[in-house]
Amino acid sequence: MKAAGSSVIGMKRTNNEDAIYIDEQEQLYLVADGMGGCSAGEVASSTAISAFVKAMKETQDTEILDKMVGAIVQCNKAVFEKAKQDVIFMDMGTTLVAAVIENGKVFIVYVGDSRAYLFRQNQLKQLTTDHSYVMELVKSGSITLQEAEVHPKRNIITRAIGIKEDVEADTVLEEVHSGEQILLCTDGLSGMLSVEEMTKILSKKEPIQQKVEDLTALANEKGGLDNISLILIEL
Questions:
Q1: Helix (H, G, I), strand (E, B) or coil at 188
Q2: Edge-to-edge, what's the strand order for the sheet holding 123-126?
């Protein structure tokens, strides 16, 4: 198994509020997209990742998803408490998508609109469902998925780490096989590239780091409107 990641500022932002974490030994991978004024967004994303990793190391639960959901509780508490310490951190929050790969399965827990994809047999499948305003409209039948991709309010999320004292995470469990790829990313990537564009790059016969660089470069070429962060894992 190989993994590579990247987190860049993009073409329009003045600072990078995203954070990523790769632990190939523990097969733990995290991507977070922070929000808030001044430097609060980057504080939120880094605080969440640090608290999540700490909780995973200290928790003795044998069920992986239970352990990951518990880690979400801890990182939500850490960001929420940090936000109360200084007025510049008020209302800060972050998305978080976490993946653990073990025994032929990928275990995913997430809050917000950072995504997890599975690339299998030259097809890219989104494993997560955005916690966003437009996805609520899709669920209600008001708009289609295609309309959601270009909706002017597509960046409004309905859940985030650290905004409230409690947060509900969603989970995914999927069997994975040799030769497949898992992509974790912020909306700085998924909001700039189509599924077809990502599929074309993931289909290439090139090193995993080059694929990460190609995805990042294309997102920047298309405008780079947000920070661009991703982790790509090859099984």
A1: helix
A2: 2-8, 228-234, 181-185, 115-120, 123-126
pTM for the complete prediction? 0.95
21-56 pLDDT, tens digit each: 999 999 999 999 999 866 799 999 999 999 999 999
E-strand ranges in the chain read 2-8, 18-23, 28-35, 93-94, 96-102, 105-111, 115-120, 123-126, 170-175, 181-185, 228-234
Q: Are 224 and 192 in contact (CB under 8 A)?
A: yes
CA atoms within 13 A on the CB side of 124: 19
pLDDT in tens, 58-104: 988 779 999 999 999 999 999 999 999 999 999 899 999 999 999 99
Please state, in angstroms and rounded to a whole number, the distance separating the CA atoms of residues 169 and 59. Answer: 18
User: What is the Cβ-side half-sphere exposure of residue 154, based on CA atoms within 13 angstroms?
Assistant: 17
Judge contact between 83 and 91, C-beta under 8 A. yes
Which helix (H) or strand (E) element contains residue 122?
Answer: none
